[in-house]
Amino acid sequence: MQIPIPTDARARPLWRALLSYYVANGAAAALGLLLISGAVHLVFGPVASASASVGIICCIPPDQAAPKRGKFWHLLPALVVGVPLFLAVRLLHASPLALGLLLVPATFCAFLGAAWGKRGLPIAVSAMFALVFALAVTQHGAQGTPLSSTLAFAGGAAAYLLWATAANLLLNARYRVQMLADTLYAAAGLMRAQAAQFLAAAATPTRPLGEILRRQAALADQLQAARDILLESPRTPQRQRLAGILMQVLDLRDHLLACELDLDAVQDRHEHDDTLAALQALLRALADDVDALGDALLAGRLPAPQARREPPRPPLESGADGAATPSALLARALSGRVGHVESEVARMVALARGEAEPDLALVRVVWQMFVSPADWSWRPLRKAWHWNAPPLRHALRAALAIGTGYLVSIALPWGSHAYWILLTLVVVLRGSLAQTLERRNSRVAGTLLGC
Question: How far, in Å, CA of 173 to CA of 320, rounded?
């Protein structure tokens, strides 16, 4: 099915967001919550449905676009950890002291999940949701006995695990396209940031590298997520073409990084400013082509044929000894690297149009080397037990914050909503102070906007 592509450049970012895997994954999660909680409500009543809904919500954070293999086992820790925590809170809710002695060490253990990186943090959030929402169930009146509500919690969570695994399987083909499109957008952003550096020295003595580094980090992160999905079982021609395009993005990134090597030396000689201006314009045009390729993939269309663009060939100026000057050689080398970028973009478009065949041997090699493991290992946790380990320090900060928030919730008169304090802490806490402050500011701004 072909989807219209907006012609207004201002509407295109919203269009891309609506067609991204974030929205597809979120819609699948929302539909699962609706269907499972509704079914439990019809069969067992509203009390069981409320606890089952909490179980579903606790399993949603780790439910992200992922490879088919290992999806169920990736989600399972949310259920295994969440059920005993939910039951413990329900049993201890009448004793504030015992509940506090549970919350602090449980928070510490949950946030040690950061030792597993991006895989572990959603599990930590799931564990904290089980604790906090169990308090909500308790504080909003009787929601059945602790055992019955926990069984409903476990039933809802288990049903959602099956739903999420099936939904991930059904959406796998779409996820491949969406992941690749987002990777192309990240690559185009890096190309524009790199192009901006070509004549930056004319305005400032030192080229600002912050944007380049930020774009490189965003592309690296997106590339790893795309590898895990696109390189899984690339057996059909369509999957092989998408994997082949991803391989070209890797090569394109390497050529962009190589452009940094000689840029300073070429910028120092202003006789090459015309060449740099032409290369800058070419790189920006190629970034537009990469964006257009991503849009075509999202819309289910063939991209337009790639118009070949030759980079300028600066003359080889001779020095006093008759040999070419070093700056002229470097300018020629820089032009050649941009030419390689142009070739990579042309090959990506040809692959998407079916006019070129992917390098399947390279795809198989990268599939074996650069795909993230799907199983869980205790090794990251064993490495976290020293003072300089960020996961340990983050877990200590989180435990102190939750403990302080719990004491404040007891002291304040608004006892019916005391868990709101803990919920705010859970969603704001991040691995560093800068990230936590950024998330805090966003949450305060969102609250004011909502009010």
Answer: 61
**What pTM was estimated for this model as a whole?**
0.87
Task: Give the type of residue at 224.
Answer: Q
Name the β-bridge partners of 324.
318
Q: Give the list of residues 6+ apart from residue 394 with CB closer than 8 angstroms, or none.
A: 111, 114, 429, 431
Q: Which residues contact 38 (CB under 8 A, 6 or more apart)?
A: 49
Question: Using alpha carbons only, what angle is made at residue 123 by residues 119 and 129, rounded to the nearest 5 degrees?
Answer: 150
Q: How far apart are CA 384 and CA 363, in angstroms?
A: 34
Q: Which position has the token pair 């329900």?
A: 90
The SS3 of residue 318 is strand
First-to-last alpha carbon distance for the chain, in angstroms, is 40
Return the structure tokens found at 180: 């690749």
CB 19 within 8 A of CB 147: no
| Residue among 246, 233, 251 at smallest CA distance from 180 | 246
Which tokens in the block code for residue 299?
């819309």
DSSP class of 141: S
Residues 6+ positions from 387 with CB-CB distance below 8 Å: 393
**3-state secondary structure (DSSP) of residue 4:** coil
Cross-strand pairs, 318: 324
Contacts of 342 (CB under 8 A, 6+ apart): 282, 286, 308, 309, 310, 311
Q: Which helix (H) or strand (E) holds 264?
A: helix 237-267
CA pseudo-torsion sign 21, 22, 25, 30: negative
> Using alpha carbons only, what angle is made at residue 203 by residues 200 and 209, rounded to the nearest 5 degrees?
40
Residue 202: both structure tokens together: 């004319």
- What does the pLDDT profile of the chain (451 residues) look like in tens digits? 678 888 888 899 999 999 999 999 999 999 999 999 999 999 999 989 999 999 999 999 999 998 988 899 999 999 999 999 999 999 998 888 999 999 999 999 999 888 888 888 899 999 999 999 998 877 655 567 889 999 999 999 999 999 999 999 999 999 999 999 999 999 999 999 988 888 764 444 445 567 888 899 899 999 988 988 998 888 889 999 999 999 999 999 999 888 877 676 666 666 677 888 888 899 999 999 999 999 999 999 999 998 888 887 776 665 545 456 767 777 788 888 889 999 999 999 999 999 988 887 776 666 556 666 667 778 888 888 888 888 888 899 999 999 999 998 888 776 567 788 888 888 888 877 778 888 889 989 998 999 9
**Strand (E) or helix (H) holding 9:** none
